[in-house]
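We modelled the chain as a single entity of 234 amino acids. Its sequence is:
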Amino acid sequence: MIDVQPWLDDGQQAMSAVFAHALPPLLRTATLQPAGRRPLPGRQAPIPPLLRASITETRRHGRRLAAFAAALGRHINLSPADLGVLRVGSLLHDIGKNSLPPQVLFKRGRLSAEEFAAVKYHPIIGDLLCARVPALQSVRPIVRHHHERLDGTGYPDGLRGDRIPLLAQIVGVVDLYDALVCTRPYKPAYDSAHAFELLRREVELGWRRADLVAALIDVVESGEAGWLLVATAI
């Protein structure tokens, strides 16, 4: 069992930095101060370069997902309340990754079994970080469950089928598409056609909902999310 407490302590600084730049001003005011903790001082300790790079990528990735997930949510007629939760949950879904060892986050090539085991803790860390903030309780299911799969082979809790919250499933599908079409340390960027093939394959494997994948493809092909603009400008 991995001790996540040091990661939680380190992650608080990253969480505050993401909040300061990514969240709407009113929500930012409500969430910057974790419950039961002393006010954040006026000057924070310098952020190490690797952590700063991780925070920057988390912010960019979260903004892309927020725009795209909201477009997908509108496409399937989610309520305004659910769209609001979806946007904030998309912004923060990977907040737990900022607490992981930088040699894991920035590794080029395949992760070892031990390294991947550490990565699989990031939804738990993100959930625990959000649990400290009263205004973020509604986004915790997204943060914790966006890597679950319908057949129960996902993580961290191995949820199956409809036990996986819908908003988490939406973020999971959009997150996968973003990973496929963007360059990552371990892979080049794929074009949309290839990404669609891989998404449909995950439906065939029983990992994703067919209707959500079909809706995402509709959103991309129609340009509803302004994907190219978002991906290149943020």
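As a brief sanity check on the tokenised model: DSSP finds twelve helices and no strands in the chain. The mean pLDDT is 77.
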